[in-house]
Specification:
The chain is an alpha/beta fold. The chain is 33% helix and 25% strand. It folds into 2 domains: 3-214, Spore Coat Polysaccharide Biosynthesis Protein SpsA, Chain A; 217-269. Helix 7 (219-236) runs antiparallel to helix 8 (242-263). The longest helix is centred in the last third of the chain and has 22 residues, at 242-263.
């Protein structure tokens, strides 16, 4: 039995078929999966597509939104209007390098664990294994050695790109993405929400190489991105119990001081 998958690639400022995600996704072996492709282009100008971009997929759709929708808005629209209940949604940005056997790993793991609604690859960026990772109210630590198999959802976080999420969960128990979160914090919100109704997720035996902009940014840009993430956490925890909100404030205050000392910049201590 083949898995049904909707692969979503969000693009900005680059020709979609020239992105790393598109090229490596098109080259994956798909004997175990029926993959529909949805390219959502946030670029200021739409890009011309032809029939060839759909050749390696069951179906391919291109959507252009020059108004540059936030990730949360795009995800909600895709879940509501494009995702089928029987499919898994594969989230990708434009800079992920998908292994050729990615869907074979997913097919094997998902058939062994049909009760699991979230399958994650290990994400490697700049020589580090950056996702999934232990997480405590805004503070994350990298694992030196990647974990595999079934994991507790409690106090875990992961980046969006590479997530395989069941349509059954997304169109059922999931309450939707908070559209105040345009870019940063959408992955954390999802993982925090998922953990409230699902005790476990699965880390697949496969690794995606990914480009994380935070690593290559200047101290000034890092501070700006960090403050945006800090604001996102305020929204993520605003309806949680008081002690959780307080823990998030304490943790993020400590992280702010650590980053300020590390980068010798008071910008990390500013309020967003």
């Amino acid at each position: 039995m083949q898995n049904e998958i909707l692969a979503l690639i969000i693009v900005y400022g680059q020709i979609p078929v020239e992105t790393t995600s598109y090229k490596t996704l098109a080259a994956t072996r798909k004997t175990s999966a029926k993959v529909r492709l949805l390219i959502w282009d946030n670029s200021p100008e739409p890009h011309h597509t032809n029939e060839s971009f759909a050749l390696n997929f069951e179906q391919a759709t291109y959507i252009s939104t020059p108004e540059n929708f936030g990730l949360s808005t795009i995800y909600n629209k895709v879940i509501k209007k494009h995702l089928h209940h029987t499919e898994f949604l594969l989230l990708l940005d434009q800079d992920s390098e998908i292994p050729s056997d990615f869907f074979e790993h997913f097919s094997r793991h998902s058939s062994q664990h049909p009760e699991i609604d979230l399958f994650l690859p290990t994400i490697r960026a700049n020589g580090r294994f950056v996702s999934p990772l232990p997480y405590f109210y805004g503070w994350g630590r990298y694992w030196m050695t990647p974990r595999k198999g079934i994991q507790s959802s409690k106090f875990r976080c992961a980046i969006n790109s590479g997530m395989m999420i069941s349509g059954k969960y997304l169109k059922g128990d999931f309450s939707g993405y908070d559209e105040r979160l345009r870019f940063y914090g959408t992955d954390t919100q999802f993982m925090v929400t998922y953990a409230r109704s699902r005790k476990e997720f699965f880390i697949m035996d496969t690794t995606i190489d990914h480009d994380l902009s935070f690593f290559g940014a200047t101290s000034k840009n890092k501070a700006s991105k960090f403050l945006e993430m800090k604001s996102a956490y305020t929204w993520i925890y605003e309806k949680h119990p008081y002690y959780q909100r307080a823990l998030n404030i304490i943790v993020m205050s400590i992280v702010s001081i650590i980053y300020a000392l590390k980068h010798k910049s008071l910008s990390f201590l500013n309020k967003q």
